[in-house]
Amino acid sequence: MSRNVLERPKPKVLIVDDESANLAVFARAFRKELVVRVAGSGLVALEELSREPVDILLTDFGMPLMDGIALLTTVAERWPSIHRVIVSGHCDLAELHDAQRSGLAAVLIPKPWSKAEMLKIVDRLMTESTVPSTDR
Predict the structure, then answer these.
(1) What is the pTM of this model?
(2) What CATH number does the domain located at 3-118 have?
(3) pLDDT tens across 46-71, in order?
(4) 93 burial class (0-12, 13-18, 19+ CB within 10 angstroms)?
């Protein structure tokens, strides 16, 4: 990660996935570099964000009850300064690209992801955060 990110507090990241094994892997992989919170559904993620917003939201695309697009739409409306990222292994690529083009997601990350690539993306998103937020 760049020097700028290392000088700032650790980025706060909320990872949302309906598979608990994926949440555990992510939390374990990034516990030194990031403040990681996890949510097993979009609805739980919204509760978590209501308590304490984060810098970056990483969400799976295909989840029951509230899919990644519905979650991203709600987060974009309620917390527009949160960077939104879709992490997915199997889904409709056209729908994912539509989400990125419409501004719902800044980045699309395919599963399986690499730690180095994920940290580069976090670094880039945090470096782009130049305007103080009013919604956190």
Answers:
(1) 0.81
(2) 3.40.50.2300
(3) 999 999 999 999 999 888 999 888 99
(4) exposed
